[in-house]
Design brief:
Layout lengths: L2 H22 L7 H10 L3 H13 L1 E7 L5 H10 L16 E6 L3 E7 L2 H33 L8 H11 L2 H16 L10 E7 L2 H12 L9 E8 L7 E5 L8 H12 L3 E7 L6 H10 L8 E6 L1 H7 L7 H27 L2 H8 L4 E2 L2 H8 L7 H13 L7 H8 L1 H55 L2 H17 L1 H30 L8 E13 L3 E15 H26 L2 H15 L9 H11 L13 H10 L4 E3 L1 H64 L1 H25 L4
Parallel strand pairs: 1-6, 1-7, 2-5, 7-8, 8-9
Antiparallel strand pairs: 2-6, 3-4, 3-5, 10-11, 11-12
């Protein structure tokens, strides 16, 4: 933490301590309820401020990319100076969602699939087996037509290629998970729905070693892991949280929802696309399905493995600088054109955010790793790529500084990460300044309230005798009791206004629901390849394409989430306007002052006003607890596939979505009714005992002043000294917060 922040925190806490010390040493001279409320509202002030600073400063980074985009290598280069901290996944399906942050001690939470997730995986694995059988028969039939009676062995290699072209990657991935579990001889149902805590590690090497059991290529539990949350005691992670997403269009719907929730909290999302096949339609579809529709703050498109793309550029073969620049330019133009096309077609918010971050940055994590190793202990891939570039390009510079420059990792750090970090620092500074000003304003108000109480009491024992003061007290209390009905009427009017506002809010949320049910129907296509012989010696491959309509569970969940966000905003705005407590307090004071004839009494009205304010301390606005994950789970439990196909399927899904939207609206309206009941009950409680509490406060003041009337001179000296200290303190606090 910065010195200036420590000074500000110390400054606020010291000011609070000075006020409490001063008030505690003179508590017999004012109403103690003021001190009690002041201490209650500022408990753990330092811890709360430190926690807020830590939350505001935490830089949350998300990494998104298709399989083989090099996410782990990129993260290792960006955050860990090229060291292999993050394990690489064996298959797309074993690339568990991972959240990484700093911790004083090494620890990890492993979250396994739940039973419903695993049943889906097993179901898709069986579908894979059935599809393989069907495709084998189909392939054999096509081959029989080609052999025309000749006995020929089954072409296994040709069938593998045919299978690769025609089988769903989702089915293949799920089959691989089941096969991996079978190979480990573990019973998956012993682990499903549970979590595992990794603790008691003192070296990161040992921790990563055990972690590999859960996320590594050959990990015993790798196929069962849904997501992991890791705390590593690496200084580079201080103030950073990383979300590393699965490198696939996740067929496990519930994990896809968790991924979007995690990414929605990120300050910056790096979208990696392999530069050798940069920003394909599959990449764009993957981005749309993976990223949340709203809440993305910064997105950076990264062309990964740029070294491979340069080598693929056959136009320039000798000059490395020209090849580098030409490849970069071509890919950047392609990205801009591709994004423009898709944004125009889909109007997707996530794509718009990426479009605004253009141009992309092209990186080579291999170059960076080679440089950081000083060309020593290189992996086979690193040694091969270095040799290839040196042999092909005479102008390629084989030194550490050049490779760091070629890698462009530094560009990402300087031009993308650093501005966001600086932006976070501004937010932290503003947050501390706002907190400080708010607290100093509160401190000033409380000191002023104490001073008013002191001046009122001092005035009473200066200008009156005890007997006269007692009589006036009785008269004031008599007049207060006469106006009990007027006070209750003011409470009732305010409560009635509140009810009407909350009824209007519920009607608004019903209308708002209708704006969040729209679903865009997409068209997909499936291709099936088969071979026919034409004449005796010729054969021809045919591709049969079928089209179908579909929607995605992602769209359904996005609609629910967007409705929740709208509810959050609108209810928050309305709750701020629900009851103006400052105005209500002011109206109540005016009502009492008008009813009590102070002109006929030598009585300080501040005594009553302070008692009124203390009696209203119990009034506050409750918070609304909005729904989140429970409603998403209705969708993810109902649909095991990301895609929902066919007119009937789409109709049922939209109907379910609308039912869930109605459930959300109904539940929020019920909560609003509970809030209304809670506020009204609190108003009734305060209203019913209000005059009694004000009278009790006045009577307590009278009891405390009886002794002071007897020792008038001594107490007047105490009051004068205390008033002087309070005025100095009030002036100092106002000066600190520029509150004058």
């Amino acid at each position: 933490m910065k010195k200036v922040e420590i000074n500000q925190i110390t400054h606020i806490c010291k000011t609070y301590e000075n006020i409490v010390t001063l008030l505690n040493s003179h508590r017999e001279l004012f109403d103690e309820n003021i001190l009690h409320e002041f201490e209650m509202s500022n408990r753990n002030i330092k811890e709360k401020l430190l926690q807020k600073i830590e939350t505001d400063r935490l830089l949350k980074i998300g990494i998104v990319g298709e399989v083989k985009a090099g996410k782990s290598s990129f993260l290792n280069a960006l955050l860990f100076e090229g060291k292999e901290v993050l394990p690489k996944a064996a298959t797309p399906m074993t690339a568990a969602l991972t959240k990484i942050k700093y911790g004083e001690t090494l620890s990890g939470t492993i979250v396994f699939y739940d039973q419903k997730d695993w049943e889906l995986i097993e179901y898709k694995s069986r579908q894979f087996d059935e599809e393989v059988t069907r495709l084998r028969l189909e392939f054999e039939e096509s081959q029989m037509g080609l052999r025309r009676g000749m006995v020929m062995p089954f072409n296994e290699e040709a069938f593998k290629r045919y299978l690769e072209q025609n089988i769903s990657p989702d089915l293949k991935g799920c089959h691989e998970l089941v096969e991996m579990v079978n190979d480990t001889n573990i019973n998956p149902y012993d682990y499903l729905g549970s979590t595992e805590e990794l603790t008691q590690h003192y070296k990161i090497e040992d921790f990563i070693g055990e972690l590999n059991n859960y996320v590594g290529v050959s990990g015993k539990f790798t196929p069962l892991v849904k997501h992991t949350e890791l705390s590593l005691n690496l200084p580079v992670l201080k103030g950073i949280e990383v979300v590393d997403t699965p490198g696939t269009n996740d067929p496990i719907v519930s994990r896809g929802m968790t991924t979007r929730d995690f990414l929605g909290e990120c300050d910056v999302i790096f979208l990696l696309s392999y530069a050798g096949q940069f920003l394909t339609n599959e990449d764009v579809n993957f981005i749309v399905s993976t990223l949340p529709d709203k809440g993305i703050k910064n997105a950076v498109l990264v062309g990964s493995k740029f070294d491979s793309a340069i080598l693929d550029n056959n136009k320039i073969k000798d000059d490395f600088t020209l090849a580098f620049q030409d490849t970069q330019k071509k890919l950047a133009v392609h990205a801009i054109q591709t994004l423009s096309k898709h944004v125009n077609e889909s109007n997707d918010n996530a794509l718009k955010c990426i479009q605004e971050s253009m141009p992309p940055v092209f990186v080579s994590s291999l170059f960076y790793s080679i440089a950081k190793k000083d060309f020593k202990n290189l992996t086979e891939d690193e040694a091969h790529i270095l040799k290839t570039f040196v042999n092909r390009y005479p102008t390629f510079k084989r030194n550490k500084e050049a490779l760091v420059s070629y890698s462009k990792i530094g560009v990402i750090k300087r031009n993308k990460l650093q501005p966001i970090i600086e932006q976070k620092e501004v937010i932290v500074a503003e947050s501390i300044a706002t907190f400080e000003k708010t607290k100093l304003k509160e401190f000033s108000k409380k000191v002023s309230l104490v001073r008013q109480s002191v001046e009122s009491r001092s005035h009473a024992i200066t200008t009156q005798d005890l007997k006269g003061y007692e009589q006036q007290h009785k008269e004031i209390i008599r007049q207060l009791n006469k106006m009990d009905s007027k006070v209750k009427l003011l409470f009732a009017q305010t409560k009635s206004d509140l009810k009407y506002k909350l009824q209007d809010l519920q009607a608004h949320l019903q209308q708002l629901k209708n704006q969040h049910g729209n679903i865009d129907v997409s068209q997909g296509e499936r291709s099936q390849t088969y071979t026919k012989r034409k004449m005796i010696f010729f054969k021809k491959d045919f591709v049969e394409i079928t089209h179908y309509n579909y929607i995605t569970t992602t769209q359904l969940v996005k609609n629910l989430e967007n409705y929740r966000v709208s509810i959050q905003k609108d209810t928050s705005d309305e709750f701020k306007r629900l009851v103006n407590l400052s105005k209500f307090t002011r109206d109540l004071k005016e009502c009492i002052i008008d009813a009590c004839d102070f002109s006929q009494l030598n009585f300080d009205e501040d005594s009553i006003l302070i008692s009124v304010e203390l009696a209203l301390l119990e009034l506050h606005m409750p918070k609304l607890d909005l729904p989140t994950k429970a409603y998403k789970k209705i969708i993810t439990d109902a649909y095991t596939d990301v895609k929902i196909e066919g007119e009937d399927g789409i109709h049922r899904a939209v109907a379910l979505q609308n039912d869930v939207l109605s459930d959300i609206c109904d539940d929020v309206c019920i909560q609003i009714q509970h809030v209304e009941e809670e506020i009204c009950q609190k108003f009734d409680e305060v209203s019913s005992d209000f005059i009694k509490n004000v009278s009790t406060s006045l009577e307590n003041t009278l009891e405390e002043l009886k002794k002071q009337f007897e020792e008038k001179e001594a107490y007047l000296r105490k009051y004068d000294a205390f008033k002087h200290d309070l005025l100095d303190l009030e002036k100092k606090v106002k000066g600190m917060g520029n509150l004058n």
